[in-house]
Design goal:
There is one protein chain. The protein is α+β, with helices and mostly antiparallel strands and 144 residues long. The protein has two domains: 14-92, Arc Repressor Mutant, subunit A (Orthogonal Bundle), CATH 1.10.10; 99-141, no CATH class. The protein contains four helices and six strands; from the N terminus they run H-H-E-H-H-E-E-E-E-E. A hairpin with a 5-residue loop joins strand 2 (82-85) and strand 3.
């Protein structure tokens, strides 16, 4: 995510971002508005908290890595972004909150439309009184 904000056209201003946060019942703070401003003005894609933290270093407001993690987790809990636990060492975040899956190859994550994947699950595998809320799928690729 190196210098993504440099070439990104500003699409949302501070007022729009504050409206998005309010609509998601997220308390408005300078840090949250600042981080959301970076997030929602980036092209869609997948990023880590460390990458977003690196982006903040180019701005005027200094934000700790812990604040970045806490804010991203809060945004995820409130449906603004998705959390992707790709492996045991790195967590990625995704601005695309529509239902979709992922392919990971050489540390690059790409979206796959849900319609392009067919998943069959035996109804007997679902406990009584439960239904499927969502399915998270990451397909990890390697060189042949």
């Amino acid at each position: 995510m190196q210098n993504l904000t440099k070439d990104t056209k500003i699409q949302m201003n501070k007022v729009c971002i504050m409206g998005i946060l309010r609509k998601a019942d997220i308390k408005i703070t300078r840090q949250r508005v600042y981080l959301a401003g970076i997030l929602f003005n980036l092209p869609k894609g997948h990023f880590t908290a460390e990458e977003l933290h690196d982006e903040t270093k180019q701005g005027d407001l200094k934000v700790s890595l812990a604040t970045v993690y806490n804010t991203l987790n809060h945004f995820s809990q409130n449906g603004l972004i998705k959390t992707l636990q790709v492996d045991s060492q790195r967590t990625f975040f995704d601005r695309n909150t529509e239902h979709h899956y992922h392919i990971k190859s050489n540390n690059i994550i790409e979206d796959i439309a849900a319609d392009d994947v067919n998943i069959e699950l035996s109804p007997a595998k679902i406990p009584a009184g439960k239904k499927i809320k969502s399915i998270d799928l990451i397909i990890n690729l390697c060189d042949e």
